[in-house]
Amino acid sequence: MLSVIVLSYNRxxxxxxxxxxxxxxxxxxxxxxxxxxxxxxxGTTDMxxxxxxxxxxxxxxxxxxxxxxxxxxxxxxxxxLLILDDDSWPDRVAxxxxxxxxxxxxxxxGVALLPKHPQTSAIEWPFLVGARDSWPVxxxxxxxxxxxxxxxxxxxxxxxxxxxxxxxxxxxxxxGHDVHADPTWIVWHDSPHAARKSxxxxxxxxxxxxxxxxxxxxxxRLPVAILLGWMSSCRHAGFNPRRLQRATRGxxxxx
Length: 255
Description:
Blueprint: E1 2-8, H1 12-24, E2 31-37, H2 44-51, E3 56-59, H3 67-75, E4 80-85, E5 88-90, H4 92-104, E6 108-116, E7 141-145, H5 146-152, H6 164-174, E8 178-189, H7 199-216, H8 221-237, H9 241-254
Parallel strand pairs: 1-2, 1-4, 2-3, 6-8
Antiparallel strand pairs: 4-7, 5-8, 6-7
């Protein structure tokens, strides 16, 4: 069985669309769906039992960020987890192929699905060229063996938001597992932040990139990784002084 874990926070309409897409997959994949709600105030928890009675809901009393994924995974009964943002859903063929890949490759602990925007068809990882093993990047749609997820502790809760998915891939690789990615295996990601990063992203993602480097890099690679991450955030910030300030604040907070 596949256990789909969806984190929701104040995006009721996006979540409802994602759940409709998942419901349509039930004829192809034996799945359970667990929605963990991070204390939404937009009526999400009222909508779920009314429109999505087949979904198991775990409502939280406060927003705990990506730690909510861990709470959902604790309840999972499937051998494999599909970790999704509330504005993301997997392509049917991609999901079936990725699950078959894990069945046929027992040394692989995960498959990172390539995020792609459903309207613009823009991809978030242009650097993924051809199928790859030892892939150190994850995003808004990840297949992970439940046993491997639990053995490495799932998402790092101190990250709260952003870079936690890359950290998971790095933890799986460091534990001797393998992670696979194939550019033809898509997860649809209907998010405007994929094209233009928010100020919050610039600060939190930059801070967490520094933490990521401190957790996984050593020697000369550590300062190089930190510097490259900060430069990448500055590129996303553009020439806007306020946005550059947020990226720089995240850099020094991480340091």
